[in-house]
Amino acid sequence: xxxxxxxxxxxxxxxxxxxxxxxxxxxxxxxxxxxxxxxxxxxxxxxxxxxxxxxxxxxxxxxxxxxxxxxxxxxxxxxxxxxxxxxxxxxxxxxxxxxxxxxxxxxxxxxxxxxxxxxxxxxxxxxxxxxxxxxxxxxxxxxxxxxxxxxxxxxxxxxxxxxxx
Length: 165
What we know:
By secondary structure, this protein is mainly α. Helices cover about 85% and strands about 0% of the residues. The protein is built from six helices and no strands. It has helices at about 1-10, 20-30, 30-55, 65-80, 85-90, 95-165. Helix 2 (about 20-30) packs across helix 6 (about 95-165). The longest helix has about 70 residues, at about 95-165. The chain starts with a helix and ends with a helix.
């Protein structure tokens, strides 16, 4: 598994060779700073919820007796494998409150923040690509105009030579 993981990272160096994948690699590198802060915030919040679940449900539910187990079960909750009824039975007040806040915060808020970071990076990279296209287009237009000027000068020189001959 470790080799497959490293192989995937080695593939990233070939992304710039394909234009569409080059945009993806530039987008990810542009979003790296924002994603690092997001990941830090995500980990801190997740650990906070793991500790909170351990303190609230650790006595009643086997899933939250240890922090490692709580980490796994809260991650599974994010993937859709949640057991709302066991939380509600364990604590009638805090079970629904904990579950609702956890799901809203992580599924709605954090997922949207993640998408927003990637979207901003894509917009930035896309704007840079558009600027490059405009610059290249004007360069091509200039080169054709320069060519046209050279051709006109050449013809003008030929006319002068014919008149003098």
